[in-house]
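Section 5.1 Outputs to date
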Amino acid sequence: MSTLRDSIQDGSSTAIIVPGSPALTISYAKLRQDILAFQQKLAKLGISPQAAVSIALPNSYPFIVAFLAASWQRAIAAPLNPAYKQSEFEFYIDDLSSALVLVPQGQAEGPAVQAARKYNAAVAECYLGSQGEVVLDVKEQGRLAGHGNQNVAQPTPDDIALVLHTSGTTGRPKAVPLTHRNLTRTMKNIQATYNLTAADRTMLVMPLFHVHGLLAGFLGPLASGGSVIVPGAFSASSFWQHFTTHKANWYTAVPTIHQILLKSPKPNPLPNIRFIRSCSSPLSPKVFKDLEDAFGAPVLEAYAMTEAAHQMTSNPLPPAKRQPGSVGIGQGVEIKILDGEGKEVAQGKEAEICIRGENVTKGYLNNEKANKESLTQDGFFRTGDQGKKDPDGYVIITGRIKELINKGGEKISPIELDNVLAQHPAVSEAVSFAIADELYGQDIGVALVLKDGSKLTGEELKEFMRQKVAKFKVPKKVFFTNVMPKTATGKIQRRNVGEAMLAQEKPKAKL
């Protein structure tokens, strides 16, 4: 299996379930048929190899078919968050010179379309037709005019199948090209890590425009011959209903979603959950324990990034050890802890986590500077994360290198502080970050969301921390907020939180 086309089997077993009244159940044979039909439509429209197809669709069967059909046509699928504003769509469409932009039915005048027009991209509405077919309703041909009736293509392992952009928290978002080989290797790794088989069925809660949802929540399970339940979006009120009705036995999500489910009414009786996977953001040991206690299933924290086509490490299934506070061991990839010169440090010593494997991108698009900074001479990719290996080789992340708090020369891990803050009974969410300080250069700020009905002062929080950590790790400033700023995938971006909290302190100009 070296292309996405090879990974989709044929047969009558269930591939996809879309909850509804009635639910839409798609077999593997029907899925292949629909992908091939849509691929022919793309070829007729003028999509040729390496043309970029921007997909601004929500989680849905049309998204799935459009994504796979584009990759089968040797085009580059570029999923985009449908909630983007026009300026954001413009950046991504321009960056890839997208040939086609797909939008939901009835959105032919939305922000994605306005952005497409600016760069003369073709526009088509994509939706489920009355006969169960996936419709490609072309509204504007744009630059594809006169280039129709291309040949139906066969993908090769080294074709770029997917381009996603990094979050851009440290500057301009970087375009990450992922080949069929990259993606199918990750799919095999995920399948092997969790012993996925045709008997497994997962509940998709992460967005498909994000590598977590696309690879771990969808493509990995599909490659195993299992089934994927695809609601339009995550909803705590309907999650367990769909999970039990359609007989799911595992799911993968960010810690934010796990915490929402912990606060929501639990199903009675509990379904048989084989495992719960957590990824894309650090999982505190407390939430780890709460999940296992609440749902009676092993919680497996993993570590991933877009540049590795998602998964790099994971805690293994029982009876192997799963370790709270660790992201586990390498899964189909080499993991080394390297210093600034690219030399491996002694086990237990902290340095940069670096990876090498068939799933890892060969480099960013049109960004030689970033490529030189990110790849060692031996071909290891520098993750930007600081960490170490414990005596058993389990990886422990201690923070983003650029996010470590440097207080007078003392390097403080914000993840360590987050985990301690989460232990306070009044705290629902907590994030620590660096703040400027005249004496130390940097000091510690923390932002807290309290549990409903709870009360806590900044001084009480500091006293709690004094009992838990060394004096130099006690925060200087404590901010309280009702809503923690998050990305579209539920990931908390430390730097953004810090900037938002500090902005609240600035005196407003008098009119």
